[in-house]
Specification:
Layout: H1 11-21, E1 28-35, E2 38-45, H2 51-64, H3 74-78, E3 85-88, H4 91-99, E4 102-107, E5 113-117, H5 146-156, E6 162-169, E7 175-182, H6 188-199, H7 209-216, E8 228-230, H8 233-240, E9 245-249, E10 255-258, H9 269-273, H10 276-305, H11 313-322, H12 330-350, H13 353-374, H14 379-392, H15 398-418, H16 420-436, E11 438-439, E12 442-443, H17 453-456, H18 465-469
Antiparallel strand pairs: 1-2, 2-4, 3-5, 4-5, 6-7, 7-9, 8-10, 9-10, 11-12
Helix pairs in contact: 5-8, 10-14, 10-15, 12-13, 12-14, 12-15, 15-16
Length: 490
């Protein structure tokens, strides 16, 4: 009987090819296995794979399988502990899979190979939220694992209408992105707009959710965030059930929520867990303190510089005494204190938690007292600046609080130059900007502009639960109606 000639492929040439493709990385590992006059070559990155799966499952499957049942056959795949097995005919295609933690197996008697998912992801467990602390409600936060985050949402929203769509972004390092929404509540146009913006991105890599938000904003030059970023699963659940769209990014514990309204950044799920009157009071308190945070210091500068006749005579005496040793103008004095507050806040945020808190408290007291005694500032202005800083910290969203603090500086300059007229001018420009701003094509100031009474019931204020149940058919807070923007001269 004539022996069949079986072609043999050079495994050494295969090793050389992958070594050059990975630039001779020491993490690239090769292992040869001889089985029934055949040589098998295992190729993988040793830092990304699970050795137990390879040693206890993959190799025994190869050893126990007949020759005709190896590499790509259904019988071989059925003996493996995973269903993520796929044949590959082009070794160039195997490179990206190896970077994802796949094991590539080829033989000296075939030009093809198989890819087996044996990845071992490095991820942390579920922990308590750090950036968004709550008194009531669930305490867990998302992790850097996309599959874990999607599993949490699936457990929270037990509905067949929950849709999760997969996208990939990145020319050099592909990043998986998931679009999550409720099919019966989400605005279809908003979903399509988000998908279109993400799919048309031409970037090397998406490092984090905040980077993606900057790339898909309607107005990338605006200082105000146009997507809510949160690490709380209950916040995402609450928002998705109101018609918003959630965007998950692999390797990021933060989630984007849009279309976002200006008032969404002052909401907290803790408001829902409280009684409706308590929740409404706290929301109004946030609105009031944010407004005072913007105008309180500029109003002080404007009154001291141009409108001192508005100050009661008894208070005017105290102001005169406190400023008698200050050699600077009110605007320069206020800028010094505002910058000092920002330095303390930034230093406290970058230091370890315990050290940062101590440094912020001690630094504020010591620097404030020393500045008054040295004659750099008045004690009344220290109170005003401290109240303004506290007001900006009441916003649940860190990005919105930062935007408010930055907005205070141009308002302060306008107040020092033009007094009360400068403050009015700054507020007008701010209001015009917010009116013209959009989030995924929806007005940024909704439900105030355009006004919608039913949507405002549970956005600006909290309403009793019984009244809210009567409006369950109106829970999509982001209707498809869009107000066309017009130029100012129109």
């Amino acid at each position: 009987m004539k022996k069949e000639n079986v072609p043999h492929y050079d495994l050494e040439e295969m090793k050389t090819y992958f070594q050059e493709a990975f630039h001779h990385s020491p993490d690239l590992y090769f292992y040869e296995l001889n089985q029934e006059k055949r040589k098998f070559l295992f190729i993988y990155l040793k830092n990304l794979v699970d050795y137990n799966v390879i040693n206890q499952s993959i190799m025994p499957a190869i050893i126990d399988s007949p020759v005709e049942h190896l590499l790509g056959s259904d019988e071989f795949s059925g003996n493996l502990p995973t269903t993520q097995v796929s044949p590959v005919t082009n070794r160039e295609d195997a490179i990206q899979y190896i970077l994802d933690g796949y094991l590539y197996i080829t033989s000296d008697q075939t030009s093809t190979g198989v890819l087996i998912n044996v990845s071992k992801k490095v991820e942390r467990g579920l922990e308590k939220a750090e950036t968004e602390s709550l008194v009531f409600g669930p305490k867990i936060s998302f992790t850097e694992s996309l599959s874990t985050n999607i599993s949490i949402i699936r457990q929270n929203i037990l509905s067949t209408n929950l849709c999760t769509e997969k996208l990939t972004v990145g020319t050099k390092n592909e990043t998986e992105i998931r679009i999550v929404y409720l099919n019966d509540l989400a605005d279809k146009q908003a979903v399509e707009d988000i998908k279109k913006k993400i799919s048309t991105l031409k970037v090397n890599d998406i490092l984090d959710t905040s980077v993606l938000a900057q790339l898909i904003d309607d107005n990338s030059y605006s200082i105000f965030p146009q997507f809510v970023q949160t690490e709380l699963p209950d916040r995402v659940t609450y928002s998705v059930e109101r018609g918003m769209v959630a965007v998950f990014v692999d390797r990021s514990p933060m989630v984007l929520l849009g279309p976002a309204s200006f008032f969404n950044f002052f909401e907290s799920t803790e408001d829902v867990y409280m009684r409706w009157n308590m929740g409404s009071f706290i929301r109004f308190l946030r609105y009031m303190t944010i407004f005072l945070s913007i105008i309180l210091t500029p109003a002080y500068v404007a009154i001291i510089t141009y409108h001192y006749e508005m100050i009661p005579s008894t208070l005017l005496v105290s102001l005169g005494e406190s400023r008698s040793k200050v050699p600077f103008t009110p605007i320069f004095e206020a800028l010094i204190l505002e910058i000092m507050i920002e330095l303390l806040r930034e230093a406290g945020a970058r230091l370890p938690t315990k050290v940062g808190q101590t440094m912020g408290i001690v630094g504020g007291i010591v620097l404030g007292q020393a500045a008054v005694e040295a004659g750099f500032t008045s004690n009344i202005l220290i109170i005003v600046v401290a109240l303004s800083a506290l007001g900006s910290f009441t916003a649940p969203s860190y990005l919105m609080g930062t935007a408010v603090r930055i907005t205070r500086f141009p308002m302060l300059i306008l107040a020092g130059l033009y007094g009360g007229i400068g403050i009015a001018l700054g507020l007008c420009f701010l209001l015009i900007h917010l009116i013209r701003l959009t989030s995924v094509g929806k007005p940024y100031l909704q439900p105030v502009y355009p006004f919608n009474f039913h949507h405002a019931l549970n956005t600006i204020v909290r309403v009793p639960t019984g009244l809210l149940r009567k409006n369950t058919n109106k829970q999509n807070f982001f209707s498809s109606r869009q107000v066309p923007t017009k130029d100012i001269d129109e």
